[in-house]
Task: inverse folding
């Protein structure tokens, strides 16, 4: 699968969740009411940095939960629907260096082209349905994956 196609799919999924430099904080999972008290802490050159986490859930046919954050111009999105694999996305909008992984049973793997397209189409359908996000606090499982994705 071409790097360009992967990157476009990743940016499309992020955009469907409201994650982009132009719209950060306005809608989707980045609405200001979804900022959580818990932060992600990273260490850079022996200095600890705290970054906001947005935590959201939505009830559609199934439960959908999502976490996102921005760290040094990189955008991170973790989401899970019911007991399907956890989906992890990481990308900057300038350098076009996206990453999309499935996390399941303490393993991670890159999706196939088919899985990229299914996820892209699924998030497009959600975005077009006008999904409503609510604040969410019980996210330990997704938080661990977020930390892992940040450290890659």
Result:
């Amino acid at each position: 699968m071409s790097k360009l196609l992967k990157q476009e799919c990743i940016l499309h999924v992020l955009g469907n969740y409201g994650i982009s430099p132009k719209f950060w904080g306005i809608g989707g999972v980045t609405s200001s009411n979804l900022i959580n008290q818990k932060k992600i802490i990273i260490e850079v050159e022996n200095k600890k940095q705290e970054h906001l986490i947005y935590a959201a859930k939505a009830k559609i046919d199934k439960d959908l939960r999502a976490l996102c954050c921005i760290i040094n111009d990189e955008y991170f999105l973790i989401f899970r629907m019911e007991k399907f694999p956890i989906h992890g996305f990481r990308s900057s909008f300038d350098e076009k260096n996206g990453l999309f992984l499935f996390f399941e049973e303490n393993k991670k793997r890159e999706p196939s082209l088919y899985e990229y397209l299914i996820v892209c189409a699924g998030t497009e359908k959600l975005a077009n349905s006008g999904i409503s996000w609510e604040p969410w606090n019980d996210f330990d499982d997704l938080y661990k994956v977020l930390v892992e994705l940040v450290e890659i």
About this structure: Residues 3-151 form one domain. The CA atoms of residues 9 and 116 lie 7 Å apart.
